[in-house]
Amino acid sequence: MQGENRFIKLLLFSTTEGEVLLYGFSSPTNQPFLPWKQRKISKKRQSVFTAILPFHEAEIFEKRLTQESTLSMAKITLKSPQLVIRPIVLVNDTHSRQHGPVVEYAYLKELWNVQKEALFQEILHAFGTDGKELYRDVQDLLQWCREECGIDFSSQGPRFGNFEHYQSPPLGTGFQILTHKELELKKVTIQKTEVLSRDLVVNCAAEHRGRWLINQTKLLAAEESYIEFTAEEPMSWVVVQIWDQETGDLLFARDLSMILGVNLEMNFSSSAYHIRDSWTKKLLQSASNRKRDIEEGIEKVQRVTTDRTVSVKSSFHTEIDTALETGDSLLTGYRKTHCLGSFIPNTGKDGEIDSFLKIREYLEESTVDRVILADPYFSVQAAEKLLTRIPRTNLQLDIVTCLGMTDPDTGEASDICKVYEKFLLSNAKLLHGRLSVRNLRRGNKPVFHDRYLLRFHNDQHIDGFLLSNSLNKMGQNYPFVIAPLERKVTLEVCEYLTQMCDPKTQEKRPPKDRIICDILYDSAVKPIAQYKRKLSPSPLKEWLGPEYCENSRNAVPKENLPVAVTEVWSHWGQDKEGVCRVLGELCSNVFQWSIEDVAETLKNMDGAAEEFLMWFSACAEEKERNMKHDQNGINAPEYKLWALLHDRATASRAGLHFLFDQAGHIWYQEDWWLHGSYRLMLGLSPESFLLLMDASRSPLMFDVLATRMLFYSWSESLLLSASKAKLLHVQLLCARWMFSLFRDGKLSDKQVLDTLAQLTPQKRSLQTAYFLSQITFFVRTKHTLESNEIEKWEPLYRQLLSHLAADLPCCSEQERNTALFWLYDSEQCSQCSLQLDLSRYIEDPTIREAVLQQAVVGIQKYLIDSNYERNLETAVDLYLTSAEQLYGDEAEKQILGKLVDWRTFERAAEPELKNYAYDKWHYAYIRAKWQLLLLAKYAQRHPEAEKTLKWLKEWRMRFPDITNEKSGLN
Length: 970
Hints:
It is built from 36 helices and 29 strands. It is α+β, with helices and mostly antiparallel strands.
């Protein structure tokens, strides 16, 4: 004990009288000496002091905490709090357990602050605030203390201001508890891990679901290495205590829990989308300082669906366990529960924004299955705010309102229910998927005034809240209060609302007292289809007669096709749209001939092809302009593609291939014949087709083009025409087409290079970058490829890199950035390797630096964000290679100044942090591990790097476990 070092940590607070001690502790450690170091908290009064001192120095320091003296630490002085020493006690011995920096069995010597009132008043005075602000200041201080030492002083107030000295028992790690799964966890073995020449007394108690199965004490002789305990049922919790038989001292205490079942909740998230309406536009103008909150918290919506909960049970799960779980779940709804309310001040636009976010927070809680929101003034404005922005798709949301003949937003007389109903139906595709809106009225008068929020949880309990304002005006003119209701009151409110909405209950009342419940919207009831434009009957049968079969399928024999097309064209002068429509219908279902056959027939008719292209282009552009693409919902392929082509959505670089691989799913319900006419247009003149697509940005035209590329043979002329399109995604589609054919062996290296050579450098750079990305991804993910097959891809890969490097200087900055953006792989190490390969071919120093900068930034972010050890050594090698090429002689400065974080080293090396802040420690430990690896590899490359060697030497001493691993650190 006398030879060990001790880690000391102090939490201090700065007052007008100087520093005061909030809490401190010390524990034994094997780490080397470390002098006092201060860590200040930015813009706060608190600070942290840490040191690792030899035992005798630590003993002197702790003794001075109890005496009238002044302590000096890291250039500051602390007046001794004159703590009072209490006798040593046992902590975490399975009988007593406390939260804090040490969670294992230990001896604890407490140094108590007996002037806690004076200490707390001194802190309150130093804040210089009062009321709500002071309350928040104290809460923030207590939260910070909890993060730094693991103690919640709001519930552990007696420990506030104390210093705690922890000492490990002599044999605290000398035993191991072993369970036996093969025996259904009915046996447990306590085994020695050290040689002990004394007799021991071992107690083992085992519990399962609140029933103690055994509580036995046995003698473990000095010559024996283990002892066993058995029970009649599986043991889910084992408590072990071991005493020295001779002295009676408790040497070891530990418990062990076994997991016998796991419930896994599966959630699926949709692509995020943004809803910008009149309300959010107003917020952005009037609260520009909250722009990020508005865009990310209000406009951005990502819907989450809870698919199911999967229960994984052990093989020892019996009918008794099932009965226990069922009995517990049946009665949980009758427990007394407490829920928290909220107060949101109306501070400018912050009140309106924070009120909305708070209401949505109450709706997002994962245990809530259903919500009733009763608001007498739930107006169109309130609906616009809330009903399109509910993330949880499984939530049933029932709105109860009582709108009369006055618009609550304007105060003017209005048939508000009709306006409301129109709004709901016209925006049905955007509304929450499980929604009902009911309007209560007695004549045209409202029937209730208060606002309620009732939540029905999946464990059967209900909680309720009283709202101070309606949602259309919440947080605008007055503070918004969400006040929790007592359980009994909640049930009374629920019954009150249910009776008002129940027609059978209302029928029993006198006519003048009856409440009418109008259902304005119900997602469970399929709405009556709105008026759709009816197409006039197709003239196809009339014009072609018996040549068209009865089941409306094209049955014109190929030899009769010219006659049929000529007959249809003869009506051009009288009915141009009808001709376009019939040709489209003929080309929609092709059986005995191809689109090219129809196109060739038209070309052979003098001027027919040119007239068709000219008139149909104008007609189709007009139809596309008036087309509504959200009829099947905003998650339908048609709407997504329309949004993408109109720059209202961003394509995922990893998922762009779906536009090609899943082509053929776009179809217009009303003007369905456009599909065939577009196919005919593409067959007649790809140039005219692409000009129209650039102008209209039609999702159907894009899908027709993608389908042509996916299912039909290679056409160099089509690719060259499509590559000239203005739309970015059409150019990427061309690259995807070429790659898929090359991958399948239908295009050779030479064909790919010859085709790309005919493009301009600006168009070629984008397609080459995307082609390289696809090669990289394919080679990385296809583990079935033999090495000789991979080698076949290498020549093309290198030639494409060379061509891209030559093309980039010919591009504008925007074109260059776009090409480099699509030089991508979803695995960061692979992407960095791709960028490094390209940089070796680039001669222009500015462009080369830009590519290297992207590589460095990407791999640096990958390293910093890593929470696991996969690919860390590869990532470190890539970072060093790219950083040395980018920074040259300044590489060490960049590594030590911008990447290697000293504070992370300190956090990872801090004794006991793992016990009370595991996530923080684990992240720091992983980062410290690769930081040490980075320093070691850099030192190997540059033995003259003195500062790196100094850092490496210091932290190797603090991390002996990492240094001894076979990870290249030595």
